[in-house]
Amino acid sequence: MVKHLLIALVLTGLVSLPAAANPVRRDHIDVELIPASTTIEPGSVLTVALRLKPDEHWHTYWKNPGDSGLATQITWELPEGFKAGPIQWPAPTRIDVGPLANYGYDGEVLLLTDIEVPRSLPASVPIRASAFWLVCEEICIPGDADLALTLPAGPTAPHPLWSDRIEQVQAALPSPIDGLDVRAQLAGGEEWILSLPRSAMSANGNLAFFPDEEGW
Fold first, then answer.
1. 52 and 72 Cβ atoms separated by less than 8 Å
2. pTM for this structure?
3. DSSP SS3 for 163
4. Are 169 and 112 in contact (CB under 8 A)?
């Protein structure tokens, strides 16, 4: 009886399901758009994540892919007055492929974008994005997808499935460290010498260098 009642409520629209785009399956990867809120509040900032979940042993790339590969790209199609910021990239890991050193993500990653919302909104707002990526194991396969979700206007309502996860990703994003004196000197055509205090080395036993820009 309870099962029948739940089905009837969903069919008649009395039970609202969490907002999210349906996951898209491509070669060796699942892709979807995930909003931090199930509604859009006028005059706010909405965080939306592009979720990439490659198959086991496959990976995608950071903004600087390293010696090979290609960074994931997102092109937003938003209503008038909306403005999407740049991708907020989580810290990558080094992925060695033979003699090549690549930078990217093994397993699932959420690439966040903050979207500025105007003060005047319609009752429902469509958000669309075209995503392009490269997913690799021993071979690399390019992929793309057109993704969309529609959110109602209203006070911010944290997404019951993804809000906490998005907050965790935001908290772990790379950020400047005040007071840490790090210097870089170009010693040769392609060789850099990095200098930092011994105290930083002892406090951070596992340090890794990732050049922010491609080509270095």
1. yes
2. 0.85
3. helix
4. yes
Residue 86 φ/ψ, nearest 5 degrees: -75, 165
Separation between Cα atoms, residue 143 and residue 174, nearest integer Å: 27
Task: Please report how many Cα atoms fall inside a 13 Å half-sphere around the Cα of residue 178, on the Cβ side.
Answer: 0
Residues 20 and 32: their CA atoms lie apart, in Å, by 8
Burial class (CB in 10 A: 0-12, 13-18, 19+), 162: buried
3-state secondary structure of 123: coil
Pairs from 94-101 (Cβ < 8 Å, separation ≥ 24)? 94/66, 94/208, 94/210, 95/59, 95/66, 97/68, 97/136, 100/66, 100/67, 100/68, 101/66, 101/67
Strand segments (E) across 9-99 = 24-26, 29-35, 45-54, 59-66, 73-77, 83-84, 93-97
Per residue in 91-127, pLDDT tens?
A: 999 998 888 899 999 999 999 999 999 999 999 999 9
Residue with tokens 């706010």: 44
Structure tokens at 110: 């959420």
CB 153 within 8 A of CB 45: no
Q: How far apart are CA 74 and CA 129, in angstroms?
A: 6
